[in-house]
Amino acid sequence: MRAVTILPVARIRPRRFALGAAIVMQVVAFGGMPPRAEPPPAADADRIAGWIDQLAAEQFAQREAATRSLAAAGPAAIAPLRAAVAQGDLEVSSRAIEILREMLSAADADLASVAEQTLESLAEAADPAVAGMAEATLGFHTLGLAEAARARLEALGGIITEGPVPTGQRGLHAVFNASWTGTSEDLRLLARLRPIVHVGLHGVRLDEAGVAALGRLRGVQQVQLYGTGVGDAALAVLAEKLPDAKIDVRKGGKLGVAGQAGAGLLGCMITHVQDGSAAARAGLQAGDMVRHIDGQPVDNFETLTELVGRRGPGEKIELDIERGTAQPAGEAQRFKRIVELGGWE
Fold it and tell me: Which homologous superfamily is 253-343 in?
């Protein structure tokens, strides 16, 4: 018989996942990792370090178990995961990014925020594979969250449109008025709209949680707070968090006129009177010049806005009006009107 030589069988490590954007798309498309049957034990530094090591284990089951445990560990796992990515193992990096993706959807807003910041830093990594996976994860996450957030806000009565602000920057405008039925917790969804450049709350009471939600808005240029009841201390905090935003605060009274900003006239010319407004009920007309409010000179439309903004709905102001100055052949009339202000809706 011929001798048969039996060669030793090489130990084969299970094939690892394909890397790149395909992994991220697969995770997003199929809902991420399998559900956990029960929560893991409380995580400490040693356990987390052990789970990190298991992300590179030869056994697929070990890698899966470590992935689930780290995802459940919460904030304590984020820094070790970031350090593990820096080691350069693409299998570990892909699983670390998968874990951070799951944390993005956590009910804990602080955890989701830290996970997002970590992914943003990884998106700038020198390793193009890591940067690509992190960027793709953030892209899918942001797109899905933005669409869901806008739908939710609009269902609760928010009005969301797109257009420019005076600086020329285009973006989303969100206005909440009397039709708003949501809460301050719902306003947290505003941070998911990108790019949001203008937010207006007209006649909507704003508490501390609502002010905190506004303070998280990145890149917002204008914030209108009309009749929100926000105190000076809360406004100071908001101004500190949004140093580049113009915050327009008014007590809530509404006259219902439009004028030309910065016209440089001695007085304020009304260019439009809103139907059904306090100004319309008082008989004001386009072309009227507002000379004084409660005896205070009105040099331009900005001054009118400021003086009216100090009053609330139902309060009365005295307007000193000059009519006919825009007509060269006409004779100007001077009269006063007591106007009961309306409210923002």
Answer: PDZ domain (2.30.42.10)
